[in-house]
Amino acid sequence: MIYLDNGATSFHKPPQVYRAVADAMRTCGNPGRGGYREAMTAARKLFGCREQAAQLFSCSPEQVVLTNNCTHGLNIAIRSLVKPGGRVVISGFEHNAVTRPLHALKAQITAAGRDLFDWEDTLEAFEAALKKGADAAVFTHVSNVFGYILPVDQMAKLCRQYQIPFILDAAQSAGTLPLSMEQLGADFIAMPGHKGLLGPQGTGLLLCGAEGQPLLQGGTGSESRQQEMPDYLPDRLEPGTLNVPGFAGLREGLRYLNRVGTDAVYRREHDQLQRCIHGLKELGMKVFSGPHQSATVSFLPGMDCEEAAQFFADRGIALRAGLHCAPLAHESAGTLETGTVRVSFGYDCADGETYDFLRAASKLPRFSQ
Question: What 3-state class would DSSP assign to 6?
Fold first, then answer.
């Protein structure tokens, strides 16, 4: 199989990730629930995961909250900053993991910046919205549909300038692009463990610059006499038993990235992205590309997108078609009615796979939509 759906999850993991998951299942108890060897082994693995994340994202281990996925972390962050009916500024390229929690809170939402790959438009619209006042801002680092890298350093600076707390959705950037909690000064940064961080599904990280309000209540193995959640991180936001095998695997994914560096991953992915874009344009496809683009590209195949995706699947090529859980992004790009076919590269992408994909694309039945 040629796997080109890393925007959904990384499918091929470094071998040590698989080994760590299996080892944890054999050796780990429940962390924080005892002083015996298996419980302490589990606790060390979890702390090791926090340490590796802290090294990669320039924060302290205590600021690293372990979550089920990026959506879990975003819900914690959003409900910590946004009250029902609150005013929130977002970008025009947000995922449903951002927009649905905001709609559930009946927030007053301003989507600022709708032009793809246009930093000037994004920043101008974003600042204009912040000037009108907001309780919080939430914005993605990279569009999961189009690979558009938003100018998050400048957006963070604007939030600090107007004293508006903000949340960064790093679902498509963590592990590929440089990301510093210290430099951004974010209140929260949410990310999945199973995409660019190369860990198992069912894992995520929430980096906390603010205290955070618990989304769930329950046992933590600490402060058991009191009926309120602990007032310190990470315990405050981690009730219940954690996915120890998953986070043991994630620790190895993070360790791999700390060793090879995100710059090396980005260069490899970006090389394949450029080859892919060039090849699709040569075939006459409508391709959504531009400056400030990460490892993802969407295109219109000249036929129904879902049928095109099935055409590729029948030839052993895995990619994704449709709205990608981000109707707002498609509305911004004018593809809400059609969707797109999305190709997203990962850390182990190779020339041969890109060329095989393009050869398959050249054989697509081209029908008018």
Answer: coil
DSSP strand pairing (136-140 vs 166-169):
parallel
DSSP 293: B
* Nearest partner of 279 among 367, 364, 359, 366, judged by Cα: 359
Nearest to 9 by CA among 293, 319, 300: 319
Q: How far apart are CA 106 and CA 156, in angstroms?
A: 24
Number of neighbours of residue 11 by Cβ within 10 angstroms: 14
Q: Note the maximum CA span of the chain.
A: 67
Residues across the chain: 369
Note whether 238 and 65 are within 8 A (CB).
yes
Q: Distance between CA 72 and CA 203 in Å, rounded? A: 10
For 344, residues 6+ apart whose C-beta sits below 8 A from its C-beta are 4, 5, 6, 7, 8, 147, 295, 296, 297, 319, 320
CA dist 340 and 338 (Å) reads 6
Q: How confident is the prediction for the chain on average, in pLDDT?
A: 96
Checking if the pLDDT of 286 tops 60, the result is yes
Residues 138 and 202 in one domain: yes
Rounding to the nearest 10 degrees, give the CA dihedral for residues 73, 83, 152, 130.
180
Q: Give the CATH number, domain containing residue 331.
A: 3.90.1150.10
3-state secondary structure of 5: strand
| Confidence class for position 221, pLDDT limits 50, 70, 90 | confident
Could you tell me the residue range of the domain that residue 29 belongs to? 15-260
| pLDDT tens, position by position, 114-156 | 999 999 999 999 999 999 999 999 999 999 999 999 999 999 9
The pLDDT, as a whole number, for residue 285 is 96
What is the 8-class DSSP label of residue 132? T
Residue type for position 21: V
Is residue 204 within 8 Å of 73, Cβ to Cβ? yes
Q: Which of 157, 242, 130, 138 is nearest to 193 (CA)?
A: 242
- Which of 204, 235, 260 is where one domain is finished? 260
Report the distance separating Cα 104 and Cα 83, nearest Å.
11
